[in-house]
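USER: I would love a firmer grasp of how sequence relates to backbone shape in proteins. This is the protein in question:
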Amino acid sequence: FSTYSKGIGDMRISATYWLLDPNKSMKGNVALGVGVKTPTGNPNHRDGFHKLDKNGNEYIQYKTTDQSIQLGDGSWGYSVEAQGYRALFKNTSAYFNGFYLFSPRGINPLTTYSVADQYAGRLGINYAILPHHGLSVSLGGRIEGLPAIDIFGNSEGSRRPGYIVSIEPGIFWMTGHHTFAFNLPIAIERNRIKSWSDRQDPLGLRHGDAAFADNFISATYSYRF
């Protein structure tokens, strides 16, 4: 049997500002941004679990699903981010971007799951295959994950901290003020690190399990004001 969840997750809304005029600084620029994560996702999604009674008869029990497929964490968060690019040679440029999400709340009281910080970073190369039509391809590296210890607030409760390192091919199309991007990260390393709760083991032996996605697809639309 299987359990699953579907629906709208927590949303992150952010605003960025280019430090240089994008219409004049065509060879390189850096943008800084701030954002807020809203608790729009269901923080206590429930699904049916197959159980057996004392007579061996099967029945369905509805309870909270695993943390790895919860749609939200029931809390507000605050993010900082940066992105930039630099022309290297004809039709080729380097790019970077990253963000860190601060989650001050300690535990989701509905599930006792820990409300964790999150982070992601990307670095790579863009190549314009059709520069006059704004079409480019990219190849780079990506890291994303959850730290074991939050910067603000406590880190108690159940969490699976760790990180994923990926090779990330992508395609990028920019027309006017509109930008469309599609990326397909391919994981080369998945590492589950010890959580705050694991570290409380006096023998240092406790190391919880992990739940990493097999596949991840990123589709992005941006509008420049």
Remarks:
- The chain has a mean pLDDT of 93.
- The longest strand covers residues 162-175.
- The CA atoms of residues 53 and 175 lie 61 Å apart.
- The chain is about 0% helix and 50% strand.
